[in-house]
Amino acid sequence: MGKKIVVITGSPRKNGNSFAMTDAFIQAAQANGHEITRFDAAMKNVGGCHACETCFKTGKACSFDDDFNTIAPAILEADAVVFTMPVYWYSIPAQIKGVIDKLFSFVVGGKDISGKECAMIVCCEEDDLSVMDGVRIPLERSAALLKWKIVGEVLIPGVLNEGDVNKTDGCGQAAALAGKF
Ligand SMILES: Cc1cc2nc3c(=O)[nH]c(=O)nc-3n(C[C@H](O)[C@H](O)[C@H](O)COP(=O)(O)O)c2cc1C
Q1: In CATH, what number does 4-180 get?
Q2: Which atom of ligand 1 is nearest to the CA of 16?
Q3: In terms of Cα–Cα distance, which of 177, 167, 86 is closest to 132?
């Protein structure tokens, strides 16, 4: 059965490695009958969480004028959420971290977002898989806290420049990930 999948990207590079894998995932997921809502965090205006804990008090997820509010309804409704990003300084890029931080709004607002499926597509320059720990571990722990089930992780090391992912099977793995929902 077709699922509603929200895909949240973190790279500012439209022709970059994580976008190429994202596109491969989306194409395969749509071919499998899933409905995709894509949110390119780096092309949006999402700030950090103010920890004001007034989320949803006036109806919108974030009380500030923030593009998170344009994706929040889709996240609420989604069966699954897929995060795609490069590693920046052994960690999650700031561009997408704001979106992840603002998932807190659902907790504060008393919205039940448990039971979703989740996956990640991550890449980095260095060859060592552990370089992606700074992305993988926070996402795994956040998913556990939210009671989301991780159905797959595509972790592609050794890609630096745009197009490098085509020398790996990253796009193939990302397409195969779509079969896990
Ligand atoms: C600000 C910045 C920080 C980075 N930090 C790391 C890093 O800590 N480790 C690493 O292996 N690669 C690092 N990289 C390289 C990217 O992860 C790599 O180029 C990746 O393929 C970019 O993905 P994209 O094309 O989807 O943007 C960094 C790149 C940038 C721009």
Answers
A1: 3.40.50.360
A2: 25
A3: 86
